[in-house]
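User: I'm putting together notes for a lab meeting next week and I want to include a structural view of one of the chains we've been expressing. I don't have a solved structure, so I'd like a prediction I can at least talk through. The sequence is below, exactly as it appears in our construct file.
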Amino acid sequence: MPTAVVLLGTAGGPAPKRSRAAPANAVVVDGVLYIVDCGNGVAGQIARAGLDVRALRAVFLTHHHSDHNVDAGTLLQLAWSAGLDRPVDVIGPPPLLRMMDAFSRFAETDVRIRESDEGRPAFAPLYRVAEIARSGEIYRDERVVVRAAVVEHPPVAPSFAFRFDAADRSIVFSGDTAPCDALVELAKGADVLVHEVMHEVAIGEILKRLANATRLREHLAASHTRLEDVGTVARRAGVRTLVLNHFVPSEGVADETWRDGAAHSFAGEIIVGSDLMHV
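Assistant: Thanks for the context. Below is the predicted structure for the 279-residue chain, given as structure tokens.
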């Protein structure tokens, strides 16, 4: 079975959207499930994609913005309630250990009741937390090797991109980032680059209605990748396929506009991502 990438949620930003779910991605290797980012509703999206949450083996968080991490603990708890029976590695930047400890206290009442009332196995041994603070190899098993690179997403630091190398495919997830050499180097020669994208003109129209427009505009400009630049990143990295993801704004821009903008500087295959798409 070939390695699959499933876009579980393709929206950008924390506010709930009507047409796109919060950021989350799955890599499926020989039926085993690896998750990159855990936006709100990720467990339900796994089910809608026809994936088995009990096959979960590792969760990777690119950074600590709520649209990327808010359901990390919830995913584990729901996988446990669905019959997860082997440990899951949870990997991401500090203070992940403290955050997962806080979640375990939040979940304690439900977990205690279900362990005693329903005879479920202990929840605590079913996940292992590891913090990462620098670039390099962060995970390896018999199916995949995962490497990380520190990318530019101020003021959140460290923030990571991840590369999965399986026997048949290499897949890179940009995370949230401005264009940077570290991501280009990580993605060199990859089969698939799943990259965030921002439409600056469309964002400008939305910002006109917001009280915090000036501050938000500064953040977006400094820490995300414009549509005009995403193709250049893919071309410099020499990837085969560019998958646009984490759309800002998440609604109101036609697929053709996204594709045409990226194609100005990238001649390879361009896929405009949508929720539950298999790549």
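A couple of points you could mention at the meeting. The chain has a mean pLDDT of 95. The two ends are 14 Å apart (CA to CA).

User: Perfect, that's what I needed.
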